[in-house]
Amino acid sequence: MTPIFRLPHRIGRANLVAATLLVTAALAGAQQPDAGQTQPAPPPLPPQPAVFHDLIPTGELGFLADYDGKMPKEITRDKRFRQLEKLITPSAYYFYHRDKELSEARDEVLDEAPMPITVRDGRYVMVATAGGPDQHMSGRGFLWIDMQTGIGLGGIYFRPINGEPTPTLTVFSRQLTDTYLGMNQLPPEFLVDLNQWALIARVHATTPRYFIPANKKKYALIHDGDYCAHAEGIPAPPQDECEEMNAEAADADLEAAYFMKATGNLSDATARLLSADYTAWIAFRERTCGAGLICRIVYTRRQTQQVLGR
């Protein structure tokens, strides 16, 4: 199973932050090339980090350190943690096997094959699960909290049966107000722990992704890293393999963007993809790019931005 971000197999924890930062910071070119070009345009400047509002006071988070190494079932009995869940989780509805409140879906996935709670560097708390024995039906998820900044994020990964692209990862936070985000706009330390969780929970690297902010709607969460990036001194991944992953990620973003556009960004939307516009555009891309991966990646990313109104 490939992780959320392509990282070297032999890399120490001390280097994980730097490697994740490198992967997420390597953005693909945004300009559209001619079909015959083999190199993308120079990358643009990275977007500004996401802004989090209503940060949780640090004085309300100190108790989390006491749960390091313990299981989620223990912390979910703590009224203080239940209050934190409310502060992090938008009061939205979500389709998790059926229509239900997002908080209910969160509780269900946090009960599927729990993992020991980690408090990395005495600061970054991850309460997570790896999914049950039936990986096709069982969801898995997490709650992540930075005890120093008061930022909190949650996530659910599962295989929807409501017509949207599948499997899917949805990140949520009541502290977010953005309606457009790429992965590298989220806190770098969050991405480090997300990657660690993804390795264990068998989360597909190029799966469609969404995020639900405070407004209770759902938006495509864009893959804006480069799977061909690698840390200095680490062998580069095979070019054909990493470019294929970049192409798969671009396709996933486009599908997610079309799905959310068709459903009005409803957090619990159900629909049958794919639209005639999507199918027609894919045919156009195939005629234009043929087997050229670079052309396919850049055309697809450009179309995704257009669908998102960027």
The overall number of domains is 1
Q: What proportion of the residues form beta strands (DSSP E)?
A: 5-15%
Main-sheet strand order equals: 3-4-5-6-7-9-10-8
Low-confidence stretches: 5-19, 21-35
Helical content band: 25-40%
Quickly give the structural class. alpha+beta
Number of E strands: 10
Enumerate how many helices there are, as a single number.
8
Shape descriptor reads globular
End-to-end Cα distance = 32 Å
**Main β sheet profile:** 8 strands, mixed
- Which series of helices and strands comes N to C? HHHEEHEEEEEEHEEHHH
Mean pLDDT equals: 85
Radius of gyration: 19 Å
Task: Provide a short characterization of the protein structure.
The chain is of the alpha+beta class.
How are the secondary structure elements laid out?
Elements: H1 13-25, H2 72-75, H3 79-88, E1 93-96, E2 98-101, H4 102-109, E3 118-120, E4 124-128, E5 140-146, E6 152-158, E7 168-172, E8 181-182, H5 188-201, E9 209-212, E10 219-222, H6 239-262, H7 276-289, H8 293-307
Parallel strand pairs: 7-9, 8-10
Antiparallel strand pairs: 1-2, 3-4, 4-5, 5-6, 6-7, 9-10
Report on this model:
- This protein is of the alpha+beta class.
- The protein has one domain (13-307).
- The chain has eight helices and ten strands.
- The strands form two sheets. It has an eight-stranded mixed beta sheet, with helices on both faces. A two-stranded antiparallel ribbon has the order 1-2.
- A hairpin with a 1-residue loop joins strand 1 (93-96) and strand 2 (98-101).
- The longest helix is centred in the last third of the chain and has 24 residues, at 239-262.
- The radius of gyration is 19 Å and the shape is globular.
